[in-house]
Amino acid sequence: MIYLKLIIGLFVAWLLGYLIVYLFDPAKKLPLFEGAALSFLVGQGAITLLLFFLFLLLVPNPMMIATLLIAIMFAVKLFIDKKKHFINFTGIANGIRRSFANKKNIMVVMIFVVLFSLLTVKISYLFVEACSKPEYAWDASGNWTVIGQRVYYAQEYRPDKVVDELQKHVSGYPRGLSLTHYWLFSWMGEANDQWSKIIFPLNLICLLIIFYYGLKPIRGRLGALAFTYFLASVPLLMYHATIGYADLTKTVYFAAGIIYFYRWLQTKQNSYFWFFAVTMALTTWIKMEGKVLYAIGFALLLYYLWQGCKEPLKNKLLYIGKYLSLYLIIGLPWQLFIMFGDLPYVQSSIHLSVSQFLAFHEKIYALMFMDGSWGIFWVIAAAAMLFFFRKQLIGANLYLLLAIILFYGNLLFIYSCFHDTVHFMQLTFSRVLLPIYPVAVFNMGCILPILKIDQKVQI
């Protein structure tokens, strides 16, 4: 019974995300699986924000109220779209049938199926590993899971103490991930962190789907799947999909945001801009470092509006306003909660240190190219950018390079300007570097030469 309740909890959160994605994409231009993946990511952030607001307003029984609101919104949508099909299964089946009907595609389809099967095996292992044991990573348990458990027990026995529980941990960890655990605990009827960890492999699946559909127009289906498989081949990323650290979720939102920014530049489709802005803003609801990632997205937007956008000034200001408005809804409430609440706050002073600057550059290359958790990936990524530098500077590819450079500047700032952070690089660097990894793989998929093979595979 607990499994059924867990599935219902995940579905209700997904449904809220679907309604939001539908709001930004009323024409339903997103493919079915990409829309489902994006809906899950948006729904995960939206449901926790909704719960946070209900807690602050001291609304009784916030779980029931949140579920009721989602049901009402869905009923309204069904009434508006009563003549439309919810999911076009016929189109999907016809596409697969056409792929196998064309004899020229058979070999390509078979390669596609083999790659997809191998990827499925990898993902299946993640679910087994994540859900076969309770949370065992100390940081993950202490910083996110335990807060969700405390809120769950407070809501069960002392609802007047829920806000107090939200204030008991340091301010550097917004409660987005903790309230996701709470949401699933409440649906399951117990604080079962073994099964609430299912969100992490699901988040990775969502990233892989968005990554695949982002590359598909550039490399075709087989090429896009090959790079998606490559993305899932680094053990560090797969490991983070089995434990409760917030770094994976932050990575998923940031990478999805950069991919949708790239697609917006390529297509000028307005819905992609909104997906870029929403996912970027959601990074600030996961960890405080998300503010830096959000700022990177804002810097990319400003540079594009300054150099690449030919629209009137009014439209440019509207883009800026739309991007910032989502932070006001998603990120700012937590900042206000910190300001007016009674949360423990760790203060860090900024102090530029030449010795830390030199030590940073001494260690970063060792951790990226030799001693770290990345194998030879960064060697390949750096070589791709150097050998195909001209293509790197063309069109939207330039903004992927700028995202990587800005992220590097963020690393330089963190490890050179805060006291003793460079001494913890061996422990923290791989996790800090994780958000840019999918962007670097996506960049390789955009700039490397395309193989001359038949890419008309309708899957």
Written description of the protein model:
The protein has 459 residues and is mostly helical. The chain contains 22 helices and no strands. The chain has helices at 2-24, 32-56, 62-80, 89-101, 106-131, 138-157, 162-166, 176-188, 193-196, 199-231, 235-240, 247-267, 270-283, 290-308, 313-330, 332-340, 354-369, 377-387, 389-392, 397-417, 425-433, 436-447.
What's a concise summary of this model?
The chain is mainly alpha-helical.
Shape: globular
Query: Could you describe the largest sheet, including whether it forms a barrel?
Result: none
Radius of gyration: 22 Å
Helical fraction: over 70%
Which secondary-structure class do the elements indicate? mainly alpha
Proportion in β-strands: under 5%
Helical run tally: 22
Average pLDDT across residues? Answer: 86
Question: Which features does this protein show?
Answer:
459 residues; mainly alpha; disordered C terminus; 22 helices
